[in-house]
Amino acid sequence: MTTDVLIEDLTVFVLAILLGFEVISRVPATLHTPLMSGTNSIHGIVLVGAIGLAATADDPLTGVLAFVAMAFAGANVVGGYWVTDRMLQMFKRRPTSTDKAVR
Amino acid sequence: MNASNIGHLVQLSFIAGAALFVIGLHLMNSPATARTGNRISATGMVIAIVAELVFVIQGGLGLGNCVLLIGGLAVGGGLGLRMARTVAMTSMPQLVSLFNAVGGAAAALLALNDFIALDGHRVLAGGVPGLDGWRTLFIVADVVIGSVTFTGSLIASAKLMGRIKGQPILIPGGRIFTWLLLVAGLSVSIVMVLAGAGVVTYDSHVLTLLLLAALACALIFGVTMVLPIGGADMPVVISLLNAFTGTAVAMAGFVVGNVVLIVGGALVGASGAILTRLMASAMNRSIANILVGGFGAAEGTQATLTSAGGTVREVSVDDAAIQLAYASKVVIVPGYGLAVAQAQHGVRELADLLEARGIDVSYAIHPVAGRMPGHMNVLLAEANVPYPQLKEMDEINPEFERTDVALVVGANDVTNPAARTDRSSPIFGMPILDVDKARSVIVVKRSMGRGYAGIDNALYVNPKTGMLFADAKRGLQELVAAVKAL
Questions:
Q1: Of A5, B33, B42, B276, which residue is 20 to 30 A from A86 by alpha carbon distance?
Q2: Are both B94 and B165 inside the same structural domain?
Q3: Is B413 a catalytic residue?
Q4: ipTM metric
């Protein structure tokens, strides 16, 4: 690992952490569960790494590692986003009984 | 277009993906834009994945690699999709935990593979070329954190599913064993990093053994860390493990040299850390305190109050219905028991009936009601309860004094006044809903059984309290019928 690459990566890492604190600390408690689920799907980005692994695997051992990594990360991404959307769809539906406030 | 141009385009796509993650998370600030936010984040994910696919395809793919790519994605994606479509909203926490487990494991596998690849070019002189100190640090950190997350999340999930009992499981000497594992794992990791930096020299076989030792310590540590923690603390643990997974993924990003993994992982690590702190403070516990042992795990602190500490007044469905129907302000306090009994719809029906009689109805939501912060909001949203009616603890607590009837459905520990008054109680200091300040209280509960914290609730022997012994769903149906009949 060259020093240049290391410093670039560390810069990105530190800034992303600060950005994460800043963006997320403003979310109301109501949305904490969807937020946890939503961030949970974002760590599915590990799939990108798994693809790189699967594309270069050239012996049985790395092949097995790559397959498991692909499957795990794939479940994380697809399941994570789907279930978060399912949850948020319920929030979106404007409740009918608020109309009663107008009565 | 030549290969280098495609390489640049792929890099740009990664930046776009990372930016969309941030924008998506930002939009999750409010219920109105949250769904869009999640979709924007998903778009970022698709862009990053497609870019990586383009990159590896233009580099040339063998047949075996194609099978690995398509097969792995189909199996994993299919399973993930099936779970996401079929899971009950009450089981959300264990699904999140499961996704933490697989995400952490995938990250650890990336580092393991990287280590194996480097080892393949080992020289006989000893040491592994290319394995400098920083790189070793990232590999070891990724393997260790990812593995702890994997087994820890599986245990957390099993506990919530009831496959393992939710109460703290204490093995004699278990705590010492956990500490030993931690010390051993860290020592091995430090030795590895020193070897990578060239401070000490080891044969590559020894390095491999060291990495396997760190891996084993981490896997067992994940189990022994979560087992002794009680079910009530599990949301905090899951949130912590979510942050762990993010960190492991960021480490994987350093190892494979991919910026989008670093950004995504760091965002999740930061958000998970914040959520964990918020949740722990809602329960007035420090994270260290939770990790050291769950409720009831500290022997000798069991509350002095027992069920025999007062008389319990039982109330009939008809009496409860009259009390509710002639109130002017009713506050409903839903807890996990309501969700387990699938009684969200019943509670809304009752609330609608009462509102139709001109009664002011609101819901008091404790920050940790349900099994995760905000979990109860999701469950009530599922039953179409308007979210402006959901009041958070700080907002509703001053209103209890003006409340005629507080209707507690399936909530226990979060209403226990012992948290305010009884210094010897294990939950002393935890912020609670001041239900006992209402003019009268009706508790719908199956039995006098204890809540997750495993302690008795002084609210149930309060003279103002009437106990309606019933399953939450059936009890509410009967209440609805009784109110209709009035």
A1: B276
A2: yes
A3: yes
A4: 0.89
